[in-house]
Design goal:
alpha/beta, about 40% helix, binds S-adenosylmethionine, two-stranded antiparallel ribbon
Amino acid sequence: MKLQIDDDLGGFLRSLHKLVIRRLIRQYEPYHPISIDGKLVSSGERGCSDRWAVISDVVSKTPGTVLDLGCAEGYYVQRVAREFGCFVLGVDADVRRMTVAQNVNLLNRNEPAGFMYAHITPEFLGKLPTFDTVIFLSVLHHVMYEHGVDYARDFLRRIRERTAKSLIFDMGQSNEVAMEWAPLLPDMGANPHDWIAEFIRSCGFSEVIKAGETDSYKSSVRRAVFVAHP
Ligand SMILES: C[S@@+](CC[C@H](N)C(=O)[O-])C[C@H]1O[C@@H](n2cnc3c(N)ncnc32)[C@H](O)[C@@H]1O
């Protein structure tokens, strides 16, 4: 007997599905660009192209499993799956962003990308399997100003334990003075990129390479994008 897989909702329900998701996307400011059926629905509030250049370079050289921690609407998760066919998982605790990510990925019939709703904590990281490439972008400064530098170091050490080949990393910097969180970070001195590279090394990564620079969130300060090896 042939297994029946229901691979389409049917015309009317599919249109309704798209309508509901587009309505949700209009109700907040998505972080990432979002496309459905090849059409741009939202351009997103953060540029993704600089960081995509680093991600695609790493994944093309070492294809394998990919994990994106704090994946927002899943721009990188979906693109890694589409362009490289990697098994890729995105994790985020924002219900709106996860609803958009899951549904847009489904509407675009994009295999093999998946999303998990979860709060990333040291305990959660301890339960994860190992991934070849871990993407951890623009999240750690929030952890650092909320819980302190030692907690953030423990966090990144646990991520290293789950990274088989490469970590792709950036974070907010103390010189992003327009941001209300900047004074809550440790003073990274005159060269925050060096401070962050040293911080990554202190989490046990043996090789830390500044692979590029990227825009920061709503400011002209440049963030460094690092590729680190465990
Ligand atoms: C500033 S956005 C960065 C999004 C994406 N990584 C990027 O750089 O394009 C931070 C994202 O991480 C998520 N996030 C922050 N802390 C988290 C945590 N502890 N657990 C799960 N998600 C978290 C937020 O919901 C948000 O979607």
